[in-house]
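Design a sequence for this backbone.
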């Protein structure tokens, strides 16, 4: 927040922002401990990114498929992210967690570029033949995060934490259509306006399109 205020001409430090937020009784939403059971995968692709430098865009993409509550039940979410820039290439929403909406998001992302490596978790939606087949046809290498290794897909995991606690939990969507519209608007703000400390306070869009090849 302090970086955003400074970009608008306000000379503030992060300690002052923290003090004012505390004075007003404002605080961020924080996740609580949760447990989840991954879907069994018929085939596991080895993880190859541990310790590998990622100096260029479209070297690595990744995806993750969480779910979120809504008044009528649960809604499944999916997004495809470019690792270096944190740019969200595409997203989709569905009521059942099936492979179709994952393929929709993948097809949309592949319409503009292709990754050298595509990293996923070990969920069944990403291991069925249609999904690996699309990546193989695009000339991309599919790889998977290890079971129980939270850091193997950390970029997109952090994205969903941000999405849930800054958008989904605050809006409490009534329908999947509302969820898709809300997420589409949020991803525009995330890509084009949100400054990232890891990107030296640049936006994902400025890094992705500024260095895209």
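Sequence:
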């Amino acid at each position: 927040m302090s970086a955003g205020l400074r970009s608008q001409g306000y000379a503030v430090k992060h300690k002052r922002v923290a003090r004012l937020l505390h004075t007003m009784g404002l605080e961020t939403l924080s996740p609580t401990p949760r447990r989840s059971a991954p879907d069994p995968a018929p085939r596991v692709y080895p993880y190859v990114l541990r310790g590998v430098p990622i100096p260029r865009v479209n070297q690595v993409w990744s995806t993750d498929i969480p779910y979120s509550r809504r008044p009528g039940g649960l809604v499944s979410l999916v997004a495809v992210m470019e690792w270096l820039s944190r740019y969200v290439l595409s997203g989709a929403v569905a009521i059942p967690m099936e492979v179709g909406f994952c393929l929709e998001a993948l097809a949309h992302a592949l319409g503009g570029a292709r990754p050298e490596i595509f990293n996923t978790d070990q969920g069944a939606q990403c291991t069925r033949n249609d999904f690996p087949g699309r990546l193989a046809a695009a000339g991309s290498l599919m790889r998977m995060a290890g079971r129980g290794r939270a850091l193997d897909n950390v970029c997109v995991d952090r994205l969903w934490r941000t999405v849930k606690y800054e958008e989904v939990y605050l809006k409490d969507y009534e329908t999947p259509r509302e969820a898709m519209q809300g997420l589409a608007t949020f991803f525009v703000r995330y890509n084009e306006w949100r400054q990232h400390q890891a990107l030296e306070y640049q936006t994902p869009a400025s890094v992705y399109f500024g260095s895209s090849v």
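The CA atoms of residues 27 and 119 lie 33 Å apart.
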